[in-house]
Amino acid sequence: xxxxxxxxxxxSAAFSAYAASxxxxxxxxxxRVPDPYMDEIFHVEQAKTYCxxxxxxxxxxxTTPPGLYIVPSLLHQASPxxxxxxxxxxxxxxxALLCAFxxxxxxxxxxxxxxPYPPRPGVKPRVRFLIPEDEIILEAIIISCxxxxxxxxxxxxxxxxxxxxxx
Length: 167
Prior knowledge:
about 170 residues; mainly alpha; globular; 7 helices
């Protein structure tokens, strides 16, 4: 196995372990906390309202924009038998985002790895924040495990969807 193959294997194994942990924790939460929890009470109800086509109904206790509720509504309209707008399906939608998050972050880190600083007269050219190529996915997984992303990704909260949309 050459260095490139070893790097690919390591990155694939790390990402697979991360995704498996997300799926296992999601399954445990589904089993142990089947009903909406804390702020999910508002978010799940609003998503179900949008899934029912009631676009003008809004809960004034919700302070986030409606984007998080539009996505499940579109999924439900596209495939009503597959995506039911249940608490479980809404949580799995966030878990899917959580699984995709390291891939998005690794794209950003790859850019920083190779982007030079703008040239300035009299200053030797240098490269921004060098991350070895074989460590990019590991760094991305570590960033994806930060609490705002990781812990809110198992429930139907707006944090992860908002963070994903901004990045």
